[in-house]
Amino acid sequence: MRYVALSAGLFCALGARTQNLVPNPSFETVTSCPTFASMLNLAAPWYNPTQGTPELYHGCAPNGDFAGVPLNYSGGFQYARTGVGFAGIYTFRVGVPQMREYIEVPLLQPLVAGSCYTFSMYVNMPNEFELACDGIGAHFSVGPVSSNSPFVLALTPQIDHPLGVLITDTLGWTEVSGTYTAGGGETHLTIGNFRNDANTTWAMFNPGVWLRSKPTSWWMMCRWCPCSMSWTWGPTLPFAAAPIYWMLPCRVQRQRCGTTASPPRNVP
Description:
Distance between the termini: 23 Å
Strand content: 25-35%
CATH architecture: Sandwich
Structural class: mainly beta
Oligomer: single chain
Number of helices: 0
Helix content: under 10%
CATH topology: Jelly Rolls
């Protein structure tokens, strides 16, 4: 399981001023404290677009509980990069072919055709998962994306982590960023691994941890935001046989830019 723990927070910068087009970008605002799995909807307007079970982690939960920050028993120990929240998703799993989890949110305003957006987010690899992988990206869509299955979404992300570059940092946050020229009318952002198993690079990274019975990769998402599009991600930790990642808030800004993704870099 990939600890795609999304850290509560998304930001975006548009035009001459910086504007976060992602509401509740760092998952700080919650309707109530998460107590167990699959409670992402408590960080509205974030929601689960498929039959997966993305997690919400927050400092309001008791430290050491399932959804606690920094200590939790579903992924290990990780401070949020900013604030006290993040999200977690499976990005790959050995025992369940093509299994994926995604998180989705409506943007504060539609993207403008021909405008260039920069996106960045931070991801982190949970330290209680065995596997690491390279698959994590962001997709902007006209209207919401949904699926009645827990498998790979047949979509091409406009922002994608480099192929073959494993996200393995379990302490710091890894930035994933890039630029995107909008087609116009994009209203929703979806985050997850859009590559199928054959095109996802993975490796045993942390053998022998307690979640080894469920080889997975999980990512923690730290932050991202679309507005002229600028996003920021943080590394996530893999779950035995299935990488999971924790994610923190991201930023999206509108500006002059190309369409080439920036190489990943670790951020303390």
